[in-house]
Amino acid sequence: MKPLTKSSAQMVSEARERIEEIETSALIAMLDDPDVVIVDIRDVRERQRGGFIPGSFHAPCGMIEFWVDPDSPYFKEIFGQDKKYVFHCASGWRSALTVATLQDMGFNAAHLKEGFSTWAEQGGPVEQFS
Description:
- By secondary structure, this protein is an alpha/beta fold.
- The chain has one domain (22-122): 3-Layer(aba) Sandwich (Oxidized Rhodanese, domain 1), CATH 3.40.250.
- It has helices at residues 8-18, 24-29, 44-50, 64-68, 93-105; strands at residues 20-22, 36-40, 57-58, 84-88, 110-112.
- A 5-stranded parallel β-sheet has the order 1-5-4-2-3.
- Strand 4, helix 5 and strand 5 (110-112) form a beta-alpha-beta unit.
- The longest helix has 13 residues, at 93-105.
- It starts with 7 loop residues before the first helix and ends in an 18-residue tail after the last strand.
């Protein structure tokens, strides 16, 4: 196998150097802010197993670039609002790469630094599928 020129860990590290990272406690404090949209990019099975942040919007990782682009046939109106978007995954790796890509597109977003992994233990509410 040909060696990679850059590891996924390096890509995440580089992304984190240039994007806005939000601590879990800070996002918990923003939960009731109507100008904040929390976007969960985890796989639907992760959401079903571990629950999700109440009021979060689910956007599968492979579609986000298309959903935020108003010229895309897949554009979602939720991304056309003048709000603060905070993306999260389980540990902060996928969301860091996603937000860096969105930033390259000109879409302003941040990500939850630790991801959902520390959400409940830091007092964040979790909703379960019924």
